[in-house]
């Protein structure tokens, strides 16, 4: 099934239902889709690798590498990448409230300036997103309102890493690429540039939010270049916003990269500390996983290894990272229940009786030792020594299960005593070996109890075989 097969003017993607076209750029088109398995909305970016050169294919796949490597709630999250025909389809997080360009144009039409609180909320989130990118040695190279997306709860995300570049060993980029109005002076002049170019673009976005126009405008591309390289722009009118915000905007638009503040310095400044409380807390659905993938499947905090695009595009899916959906996370299996406590080898407990001692591998605290009176009247009126049960101790070996041995009358009486609680004082002895009627009755009751338990623990008799002859109905078999 080809991705370009039209269905009501929209392409088809396996396991996804296409809703509408969100936009198009130099590297492909972006669609709003719904995943059939979890009914969640996502954005699919479709790039035609068949019509690209090998270098352009590497740039298109580079966005997948960077999206997987950057894990931050202010950067658009990666979910999946697959090849459909000759087209690379990248499933990303969907921003339901569009991009910042729409809100700037809407405010310009209605002539309603942004509140300073809203500007600080957007600016500080952009600084956090750029800080996450720069910490991984990645420069975006195309920061502009169209690549800044708004999600629920005023959460902001940086997207479109198609032309972002990963710097190694603090090298400088030299490629002249980006949107003209938001390109830094060093990019226009062909000088090596680094993370400071993103900060100049951030200043241009901040200037546009405050004035509803770009800082440098020209009639021709040459005029625009001269204005940007010369640093000629109209300052933000004083009184419209606080002096700290205006000063920060002017410093970001400096022609010298060393004079521009970094994201960390902006977030740590005194002016920004007054507005940190307005930053939204990302909900659980917008918190990306902390894991990152490498080519061998392990996780680490560095960038994903470079994805080598083979000449044969059919081999590309083998090099793409695995999918990452919150709804596909398998919950860890519940631990097995602890084994039941075993019965001591010295004392066997009848069914329903309370064990005098237990063996627990989980380290449970055993119950305290129970001591009995000095003597207990036996079944025949003979005084027997008291029984003292020490939990967790049963001789020289650990307790084992031995339910087949029949308990003795003394053991049965000991178990009965443990179950019934403290015993009354022992019966007094009568002269000449005679016992009172109450003692005789108690002895008879004890003997009956012992007999009952002996009968209860006796093995069941073997079932009597059925002696009646079995009548097997005759069945005629025909062999043909």
In summary, what is this structure?
By secondary structure, this protein is α+β, with helices and mostly antiparallel strands. Helix content is 27%, strand content 12%.
List keywords for this structure.
single chain, 480 residues, alpha+beta, Phosphorylase Kinase, domain 1, Transferase(Phosphotransferase), domain 1, two-stranded antiparallel sheet, 11 helices, 11 strands, 12% strand, disordered N terminus
Q: Structural class given helices, strands, pairing?
A: alpha+beta
CATH class of the domain at 99-282: Mainly Alpha
How would the global form be characterised? elongated
Q: Overall mean pLDDT score? A: 74
Work out the strand percent.
5-15%
Radius of gyration in whole Å, from Cα?
A: 41 Å
Largest sheet: 5 strands, antiparallel
Helix amount, in percent?
25-40%
Strand order of the largest sheet: 1-2-3-5-4
Query: What's the architecture of the domain at 99-282, going by CATH?
Result: Orthogonal Bundle
SSE pattern, N- to C-terminal: EEEHEEHHEEEEHHHHHHEEHH
Number of helices: 11
Q: Regions with pLDDT < 50 over 5+ consecutive residues?
A: 1-7, 291-300, 342-396, 421-429
Question: How many strands in all?
Answer: 11
Supply the CATH superfamily name of the domain at 99-282. Answer: Transferase(Phosphotransferase) domain 1
CATH topology of the domain at 99-282: Transferase(Phosphotransferase), domain 1
* C-alpha termini separation: 55 Å
Domain Protein kinase: 16-276
InterPro entries: Kinase-like_dom_sf (IPR011009), NEK_Ser/Thr_kinase_NIMA (IPR051131), Prot_kinase_dom (IPR000719), Protein_kinase_ATP_BS (IPR017441), Ser/Thr_kinase_AS (IPR008271)
GO molecular function, one term: ATP binding
Region (Disordered): 315-360, 382-431
């Amino acid at each position: 099934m080809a991705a370009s097969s039209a269905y009501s003017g929209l392409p088809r993607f396996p396991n996804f239902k296409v809703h509408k076209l969100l936009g198009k750029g130099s590297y492909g088109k972006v669609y709003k889709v719904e995943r059939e398995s979890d009914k969640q909305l996502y954005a699919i970016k479709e790039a035609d690798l068949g019509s690209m050169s090998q270098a352009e294919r590497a740039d298109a796949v580079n966005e997948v590498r960077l999206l997987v490597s950057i894990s931050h709630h202010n950067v658009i999250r990666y979910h999946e990448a697959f090849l459909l025909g000759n087209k690379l389809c990248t499933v990303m997080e969907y921003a339901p409230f569009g991009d910042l360009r729409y809100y700037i144009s809407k405010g310009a039409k209605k002539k309603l300036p942004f509140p300073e609180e809203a500007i600080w909320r957007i600016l500080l989130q952009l600084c956090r997103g750029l800080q996450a990118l720069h910490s991984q040695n990645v420069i975006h190279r195309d920061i502009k309102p169209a690549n800044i997306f708004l999600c629920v709860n005023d959460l902001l995300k940086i997207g479109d890493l198609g032309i972002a570049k990963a710097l190694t060993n603090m090298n400088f980029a030299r490629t002249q690429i980006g949107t003209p109005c938001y390109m830094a002076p060093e990019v226009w002049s062909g000088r090596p540039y680094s993370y400071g170019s993103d900060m100049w673009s951030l200043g241009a976005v901040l200037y546009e939010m405050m004035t509803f126009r770009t800082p440098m405008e020209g009639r021709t591309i040459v005029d625009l270049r001269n204005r940007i390289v010369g640093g000629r722009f109209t300052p933000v009118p004083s009184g419209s916003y606080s002096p700290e915000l205006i000063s920060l905007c002017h410093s970001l638009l400096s022609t010298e990269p060393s004079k521009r503040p970094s994201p960390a310095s902006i977030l740590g400044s005194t002016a920004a500390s007054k507005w940190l409380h307005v930053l939204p807390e990302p909900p659980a659905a917008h918190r990306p996983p902390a894991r990152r993938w490498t080519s061998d499947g392990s996780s680490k905090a560095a960038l994903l290894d470079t994805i080598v695009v083979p000449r044969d595009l059919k081999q590309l899916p083998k090099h793409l990272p695995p999918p990452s959906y919150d709804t596909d996370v398998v919950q860890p299996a519940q631990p097995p229940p602890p084994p039941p406590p075993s019965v001591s080898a010295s004392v066997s407990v009848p069914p329903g009786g309370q064990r005098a001692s237990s063996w627990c591998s989980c380290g449970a605290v055993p119950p305290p030792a129970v001591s009995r009176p000095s003597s207990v009247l036996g079944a025949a009126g003979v005084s027997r020594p008291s029984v003292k049960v020490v939990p967790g101790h049963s001789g020289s070996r650990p307790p084992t299960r031995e339910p087949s041995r029949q308990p003795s009358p003394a053991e049965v009486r000991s178990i009965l005593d443990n179950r019934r609680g403290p015993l009354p004082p022992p019966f007094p002895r009568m002269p000449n070996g005679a016992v009172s009627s109450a003692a005789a009755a108690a002895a008879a009751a004890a003997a009956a109890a012992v007999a009952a338990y002996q009968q209860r623990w006796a093995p069941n008799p073997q079932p009597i075989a059925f002696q009646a002859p079995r009548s097997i109905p005759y069945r005629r078999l025909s062999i043909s």
